[in-house]
Each structure stands twice: as C-alpha cells, then as structure tokens.
Amino acid sequence: MSFLSDILNRLLEQYGYIVLFLCLFLELLAIPLPGELIMTYAGFIVFKGKLDWLLSVIIGGIGASLGMTIAYWIGYRLGKPFFEKYGSRIHFGPEKLDSVAKWFERYGNKMLIIAYFIPGVRHITGYFSGATRLSFRKYAIYAYSGAFLWVSVFITLGKLLGPKWEQYHHTINLYMLILGLIAVIAYVLIILYKKNKQRIRNRIDVWLEKKLQQYHSVGKVKFIILTAGALFVVFFSLMIGIIHDFLSHEFTRFDEITSYIVGQVFNSSWNESMNHWAIFSSSSLILSLILLTSLWIRFKGNDRLLTIAFYVIVVVGGEGLCVGLRRLFHRIGPSGIEFTFPSEQVFMAYTFYGFTAFLFLRHHGNYKIRIIVILIISIVLLMTGISGVYLGSQYPSDVVAGYVFGGLWISSNVILLEIFRASALSLA
User: Fold this and answer.
1) In this structure, are residues 1 and 22 in contact, taking their beta carbons and an 8 Å threshold?
2) Residues 353 and 417 in one domain
3) Which of 193, 235, 259, 339 has its CA 20 to 30 A from that of 129?
4) For 358-381, what is the mean pLDDT?
5) Is the alpha carbon torsion for 91, 96, 98, 104 positive or negative?
C-alpha cells in the first residue's frame, strides 16, 4: 500500500490535474483503474495545499463526463448488431436487450447517478445506454450530474480525511458502496410500487376498511397511517441492524471515522455555536416548549383531550423508554458518562420536536409553512446530533441510535393516535 501511495503522491503532486483527468476519463471507458482511490488521494493533496479543491472537482468531473460520453457513442455505434453477434456469449442476446432497453428508457436514466458509486456498474452504464439508444439528452443530464457528484464526494472526503486518508479510505469506500446498493434497492422498490400502485392501494384500502370506520377525513387518515407505517418498517429494520452491530462491537471504526470527519468539518471556531445547538436538547428548554405546546393544543388543536393524552404518552413514555434502553445496553460514552446508547439528547429532541411538528402539520394546511417547519426541525435535529459528537459527550453511533429509536417511537404513536382519532369520530 505504501508503494502505491508513493506513486500516487509523486504523480498527483507533479501532474495532479492531468493525472486526475486521465484516470477518471479512462476508468469510465472501463479501463480497470482505482477511481475512488485516486480521487481521495487527490483530496489529500488538496488538504496539503498543493491542489485546488474546486479546480480538482471541475477537471475530474470533466474527465469522467468525457469518458462517459465516448462510452455512450461507442455503445451507440455497436448497438444491436454487436449483441446479435456476440450477446449470446455473455447471456445477453437481442431479445433480452430489447426488454432491458424498454425498462432503461423508462426508468434507467435516473439510475445513472447512483451507478457511479457502485464499482463494476459505472463502467458499463455508458456503453449500455448507447447500445439501448437512450436519448443522449437525457443521458447527458444524469450522467454529467452524477459524474460531478461522484468526483465532489470523493475529493471532499480525501480533503476531510487529510493525514488519516490511508487509514480510513477503504472503510469509507465500503460505506459508499453500501449506500449505493441501498439507493438502488430503494429505487427498484419505488419502481415496483409505481407499477403495482393500484393493486397495492386496493389491498391497503380493504385492510383499512376493516380497521377504520368511514368518515369525512378518512382519506387524510389513510395517508398518515400509511406514511407512518412505512416509516415504522424502515426504522424497525434499522433498529435490528443497529442492535446487531452494537452487540457485535462493530461500531468502533464507524465512530472513529465519523468523529474525525466532524472534527475536520467543524473546527475550534464552532465551539460556541455547538454549545448553543446543544441547548435545543436541554431538559429546561424542552419542558418550557412542552408547556407552550400543551397550551396551543388546549386552545387551538382538534380532539384536544386525545391529543394531549398522546402528547403526554409520547414525551413521558419516551423518556422512560430511553432510560430503559440506555440501562439495557449500558454503554460508557467518550467522556466517561454512563448510559449513552442511544443518545438521550437526540432521542428526546427527536421525540419532542418530531411529534410536535407532526401535530402542527396535521392541523395546518399552508404548504409553504409546512415546508419551512420541516426544514427547521430537520436542521435542529441534525445539529443537535452533531453537537453531541463535536463536544465529545456522545459517540456517533449513540446519535444514530437516538435517531432510529426516536423515529420508531414517534411513528408507532402516530399510527395509534390516528386509529384512536378515527375510532372516536366513528362513534361520535
């Protein structure tokens, strides 16, 4: 590894932009070159001040885009005759090409962005897009956007990792691959849902009809329950994975890398700001906001008694659940504090702000205000988690667990609240 590092170091320091351009250009023509390795090392050279970050991203993005363009036109020129003659040898004859071409024309252009992050896939997408006669205009929009995103991510990571580049880049590449595969799976599931949307909706309607009585706002209730149900499944799946990784002691590397990156992104000048962000998860502020929210529910909300009852259950029950989870896992945090998994600050902030935002959005119809509220809450929750890592009171995995367990708790209570609400209205 040190030999390869020495070669990359010499080449990138002497001919940095040329090497970056040529390597990414050739890799996207399916020449076996380590693109991520080269880009992250280029980011390390940027960290050392010997390359410019913006210029590196532009030149690397142009190189990747040019490689994808040439690959497209080669595939376009080969087209069907090539697959009619040689396709059977690689189990990809003309009939299969036609069927895949129709699918690719309809959905595949959006996959071009994700494909860059999956080794082996990005090398063939250019040729395949051309061979299937995907519109070059559509191809260029997604392929070029994906190229610059791909280059930006890995060069920025190399810059952030700095002297830890050689130690961490393999793990980060693995994370990127996993995220890319998750994105592909999610995209395929979305496609399948769109294709079978009516059938799925009919089955869900039948199930909901058995559980809920019809009333004037039943459509809204169905939407909320379906959305909360989908989120519950997602958070439950993530919870299983997080518990498994915790018990297997697999968070060490993740915590080390994430803490290092947070320290690189947010330097010492952020200390005062991070202390301010941490206030959003303080018990005193949350208790004050709970009182204000309760008053709002009392005078402005609908189904006041039921809503306040669930509000108490969510907040008080959430605190009890968090205490139980932290004592169950009994983890000692980075500053020596006991019981940090999952993060109490993140769990309670997510529980309070998330459920309060739901109640507000549930009864407020203005679309712009809804968007503003969602953005504000998202920023508050994100910075609350980052502040805990920055200030050294929590591990990154504590924060992630706080988000997951908090999301699971909120989504389950939203489902129950809406079912109770519908039942109460049906009996009225």
Assistant:
1) no
2) yes
3) 193
4) 80
5) negative
